[in-house]
């Protein structure tokens, strides 16, 4: 991605945020500009090529070892004991089942195999080398099996006997809470929910025995698992897409809450080193002002200042979350506060060209902890559909661009001369202190500090007067509102006065003695007619 710096501000074409393969999804600098789908395809191609080369190398090594062993046997003569051991070893190697995945690419597996070979045949160095070649071929066969699947039942029993740190580890309160919420959620899916829970337990049990895998391989396992579960829900159980998305969010929350301790900023990566480098870089750039970045935000407006504080709080809070989706939510909330701050300042909707410089300024001002680790964690273990499309993917891609810009920021990016940029970076001067530097060199440091304090007091006094003025205005508005309501009520009462009418008399009964009854016709009398 090419980050461009112009005098009008920092600008990134929206097309540069998309996957460079042209699939239409958002790309990511961590994936060399590809989206997660295209990156996995490219990764698999390169990986298969490397596997093929390693396979050919292993076969060649095995042939060389066999030829060397055969020649040594012919020169030294037949040694029955050694030959019987060799035959026994070859038989065991042929009947042995695959028990590991991708151990060939890890240092621990190679060291373990070498140590085991040396213990069994301490005096047969040549036989140990041949065993090593056989182990390479055996391990390479395992690579073509999906890494998240379990091995055979007999091997499950053997692995289950080994002590697992996760079994004896005391579960945290958050882990227990997430587990209960996940169980309650999958109950609503009935049979598909049971299948989801079974697959999740299977995956967690598998990963507990694969701690020696590299973080990239563990990430590949997680991505394969997400894809497999989503496909099962859609094809086997015919679950609607909206319910599949909701289920995948809960699966990610349950899985990554339990895996967070092992896969966030692991010791086998240089994530921590990158974190320290970014933090040091941001501290060195503390002198960068909004004007240098062409940030269209005025912090003098109280509402805008509050939005900036909330945005910084959200980007810092990202480090406290354990689920990739929750970390993405913090980035999204931060970005929305930025858009609101720009909208209030400009009195018009914010554009993408306004958003990126402001996001860079927020990152510089907040200096979020473990920024690179959080970005790498989201990239490796988040549900890929969230990073490829939607506002979460858009905001995350912009954050990656902002971090890349900060790492490569130079004098030209800020429209400064190289001399001024070097002076600011070394701390010889600061653009924020240029006005105070107008003092005479003879003026002591105490006088400069006093002037600075007076300026701060003046600003606080103005702010206090503004608050008092607003409070008096509010009090006046309340009094005027009360008087207005009272006047309206009085006008209504005057226009429609309340008339109290006397109590009406009760209606007289028909058979009561009343004067008005005289006006009634006489009652009918029965008459008898003679027939």
UniProtKB/TrEMBL annotation:
Alphabetized UniProt keyword annotations: Acetylation, Cytoplasm, Endocytosis, Endosome, Metal-binding, Phosphoprotein, Protein transport, Transport, Ubl conjugation, Ubl conjugation pathway, Zinc, Zinc-finger
Gene: RABGEF1
GO biological process: endocytosis; protein transport
Residues annotated as domain VPS9: 272-415
GO CC terms, sorted: cytosol; early endosome; endocytic vesicle; recycling endosome
Organism: Taeniopygia guttata (Zebra finch)
Keyword Zinc-finger on entry: yes
Biased segments, Polar residues type: 70-81
Protein transport keyword on record: yes
Span of domain A20-type: 13-47
Protein name: Rab5 GDP/GTP exchange factor
Location relative to the cell: Cytoplasm; Early endosome; Recycling endosome
Composition skew (Basic and acidic residues), residue ranges: 115-132
Pfam families: DUF5601, VPS9, zf-A20
GO MF entries: DNA binding; guanyl-nucleotide exchange factor activity; small GTPase binding; zinc ion binding
Region spans: Disordered: 66-85, 112-132, 151-173, 512-531
């Amino acid at each position: 991605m090419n980050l461009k710096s112009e005098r009008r501000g920092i600008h990134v074409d929206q097309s540069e945020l998309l996957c460079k393969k042209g699939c239409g999804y958002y790309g990511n600098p961590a994936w060399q500009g590809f989206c997660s789908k295209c990156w996995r395809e490219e990764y698999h191609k390169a990986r298969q090529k490397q596997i093929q080369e390693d396979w050919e190398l292993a076969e060649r090594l095995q042939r060389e070892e066999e030829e060397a062993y055969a020649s040594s046997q012919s020169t030294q003569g037949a040694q029955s004991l050694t030959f019987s051991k060799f035959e026994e070893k070859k038989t065991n190697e042929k009947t042995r089942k695959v028990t590991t995945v991708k151990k060939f690419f890890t240092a621990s597996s190679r060291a373990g195999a070498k140590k085991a070979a040396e213990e069994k045949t301490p005096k047969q160095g040549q036989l140990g080398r041949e065993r090593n070649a056989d182990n390479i071929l055996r391990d390479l066969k395992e690579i073509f099996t999906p890494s998240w699947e379990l091995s055979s039942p007999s091997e499950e029993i053997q692995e289950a006997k080994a002590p697992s740190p996760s079994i004896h580890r005391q579960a945290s309160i958050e882990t227990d809470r997430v587990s209960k919420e996940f169980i309650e959620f999958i109950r609503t899916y009935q049979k598909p929910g049971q299948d989801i829970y079974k697959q999740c337990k299977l995956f967690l049990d598998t990963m507990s025995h694969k701690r020696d895998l590299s973080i990239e391989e563990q990430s590949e396992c997680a991505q394969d698992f997400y894809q497999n579960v989503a496909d099962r829900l859609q094809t086997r159980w015919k679950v609607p897409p909206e319910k599949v998305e909701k289920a995948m969010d809960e699966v990610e929350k349950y899985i990554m809450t339990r895996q967070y301790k092992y896969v966030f900023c692991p010791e086998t990566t240089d994530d921590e080193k990158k974190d320290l480098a970014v933090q040091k870089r941001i501290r060195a750039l503390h002198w960068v002002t909004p004007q240098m970045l062409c940030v269209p935000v005025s912090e003098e407006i109280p509402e805008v200042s509050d939005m900036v504080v909330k945005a910084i709080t959200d980007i810092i809070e990202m480090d406290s979350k354990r689920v990739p989706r929750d970390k993405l939510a913090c980035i999204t909330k931060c970005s929305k506060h930025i858009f609101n701050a720009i909208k209030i300042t400009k009195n018009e909707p914010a554009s993408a060209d306004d958003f990126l410089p402001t996001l860079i300024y927020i990152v510089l001002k907040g200096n979020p902890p473990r920024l690179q680790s959080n970005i790498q964690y989201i990239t490796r273990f988040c549900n890929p559909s969230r990073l490829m499309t939607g506002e979460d993917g858009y905001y995350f891609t912009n954050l990656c661009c902002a971090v890349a810009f900060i790492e490569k920021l130079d004098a030209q990016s800020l429209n400064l001369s190289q001399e001024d940029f070097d002076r600011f970076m070394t701390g010889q001067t600061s653009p924020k202190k240029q006005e105070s530097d107008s003092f005479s060199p003879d003026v002591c440091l105490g006088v400069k500090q006093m002037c600075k304090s007076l300026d701060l007091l003046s600003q606080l006094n103005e702010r206090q007067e503004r608050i008092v003025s607003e409070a008096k205005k509010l009090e006046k508005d309340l009094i005027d509102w009360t008087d207005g309501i009272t006047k309206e009520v009085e006008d209504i009462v005057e226009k429609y006065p309340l008339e109290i009418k006397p109590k009406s008399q009760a209606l007289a009964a028909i058979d009561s003695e009343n004067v008005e009854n005289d006006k009634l016709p006489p009652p009918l009398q029965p008459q008898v007619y003679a027939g």
